[in-house]
Specification:
Layout lengths: L10 E3 L8 H9 L4 H4 L23 H23 L9 H8 L6 H18 L11 H11 L2 H14 L4 E8 L2 E8 L10 E7 L6 H4 L3 H12 L2 H8 L1
Parallel strand pairs: 1-3
Antiparallel strand pairs: 2-3, 2-4
The chain binds fe (ii) ion (FE2).
Length: 238
């Protein structure tokens, strides 16, 4: 399942990339589509799902979304609130916590939980019950300019999502004026490296295992064909 070479070359971010100025990070986040759900100061709240738990069926069942949102996402929020209590992060908005903790080994737990709160909020918006199909024209033109075609973009996204070894995320990002595909491990995020996220695919096993077991590629392809929220990506592309 974890094909190491898909013929594509997605950007891969690691810990060494967490050296971006906080100002740049926050600027990228402000354009990243999560400002409405993550602007509040701590303690942080679990943002509402943008649709009912069964709205993505049959691609992702209410069983999967119920656990993923109700257990995993909620746990990241709860953990974050406990971890930051009484610390310098206690009164900071989510984006500043991520920027401040990125790359600091002693703050890894805070970074991981904060980033996972952000990532999941962004992931829910990256899907829509009537997703898939063709991107809006404005986004389609950018995709064609960067990848050649929508199919080529989807193929590269699928390659990144399937080849990410272990837990992580596949992303469509904007780098300057060019769309690119990236992948990150565990909780890591592209915006600490100056990339603007447009949409993401969660490839942690908890995202798909109840419905697809080990067939990550089937989950990814179904996501791309039936759930992907091109409108959300277009909004983030500005
Ligand atoms: Fe997840």
């Amino acid at each position: 399942m974890n094909k190491e070479d898909t013929g594509n070359s997605p950007i891969v971010f690691g810990r060494r990339d967490f050296l971006i100025a906080a100002a740049g990070t926050v600027a990228a986040l402000a354009m990243g589509g999560c400002s409405k759900t993550s602007q509040a100061s701590s303690p942080h709240a679990l943002p509402p799902l943008p649709y009912a738990e069964n709205a993505l069926e049959p691609v992702l069942t209410a069983h999967t979304i119920g656990y993923h949102y109700g257990k995993h996402h909620r746990a990241y929020v709860d953990n974050l609130n406990k971890l930051i209590e009484g610390t310098e992060y206690a009164d900071l908005p989510l984006e500043k916590i991520i920027a401040g903790a990125a790359g600091k080994m002693e703050k890894a737990a805070i970074f991981n939980n904060a980033a996972q709160v952000w990532n999941h909020t962004f992931y829910w918006k990256s899907m829509t019950p009537k997703g898939g199909g063709e991107p809006p024209d404005a986004l389609k033109q950018k995709i064609q300019a960067s990848f050649g075609s929508v199919d080529a973009c989807k193929k590269e996204l699928a390659g990144a999502a399937v080849s990410q070894f272990g837990s992580g995320w596949a992303w469509l990002v904007l780098d300057q004026n060019t769309l690119k595909v990236a992948k990150t491990a565990n909780a890591e995020v592209p915006f600490t490296s100056g990339m603007k996220p447009l949409l993401t695919i969660d490839v942690w096993e908890h995202a798909y295992y109840l419905d697809y077991q080990n067939r990550r590629a089937d989950y990814v392809n179904a996501f791309l064909d039936k759930l992907i929220n091109w409108e959300f990506a277009m909004q983030n592309a500005g």
